[in-house]
Amino acid sequence: MNLEIKDISLRDIKESDLAILCQIYGSTRTEELEKGTNWSEEEKNIFIEHQFAAQHEYYQKNYTGAKFYIIEKENVVIGRLYIDFFFEKKGFRIIDITLLPDWRKKNIGSSILEEILKKAKTVNLNVSIHVETFNPAMNLYKKLGFTKISETNGVYHLMEWRP
């Protein structure tokens, strides 16, 4: 399934993208590590590298039918989108969508999500995503019509959108 987003391109990740993918992942942990630890920059970097490697391996093994994309604007890497268009043969699952900090709050994420919802509607499938309770994007998901259908450990909300 192809997603068509104005001024944005998606391409499959490659082995050579691992460093930028780690950087994208790390950008989601920066605030947590700054506020919650007294680690050196080196310790933070080692932690991020290990956590990214574990997450990457998990996603690759457990979402075998998924698409793993690099998000680009004008040939510049700005984020990642991991999505399974036929998750458990029931609907779309957004595994991860992350933009680098300089590209957030520019309607790029909402444009991508709106395109995903548009595609899901054409095939009459639901869209789901796990969202941490403190994730700033939670408001965007709610605004787009996602509702919480379950919660894990009081931290992760499984959100779902229905056509």
Q: Which residue ranges are poorly predicted, with pLDDT under 50 across at least 5 consecutive positions?
A: none
Order of helices and strands: EHHHEEEHEHEE
CATH topology: Aminopeptidase
The biggest sheet amounts to: 7 strands, mixed
Helix content: 25-40%
As laid out across the biggest beta sheet, the strand order is 1-2-3-4-5-7-6
Question: Strand fraction band?
Answer: 25-35%
The CATH superfamily label reads Gcn5-related N-acetyltransferase (GNAT)
Mean of the pLDDT scores? 92
Number of domains: 1
Termini separation (Å)?
17 Å
Number of helices: 5
Shape: globular
Q: What is the subunit arrangement here?
A: single chain
- The count of β-strands is 7
Derived structural class: alpha+beta
Radius of gyration: 16 Å
CATH class term: Alpha Beta
CATH architecture grouping: 3-Layer(aba) Sandwich
How does the SSE layout of this entry go?
Layout: E1 9-12, H1 18-27, H2 30-36, H3 41-62, E2 67-73, E3 76-87, E4 91-99, H4 108-122, E5 126-132, H5 138-143, E6 147-152, E7 156-161
Parallel strand pairs: 4-5
Antiparallel strand pairs: 1-2, 2-3, 3-4, 5-7, 6-7
Helix pairs in contact: 1-3
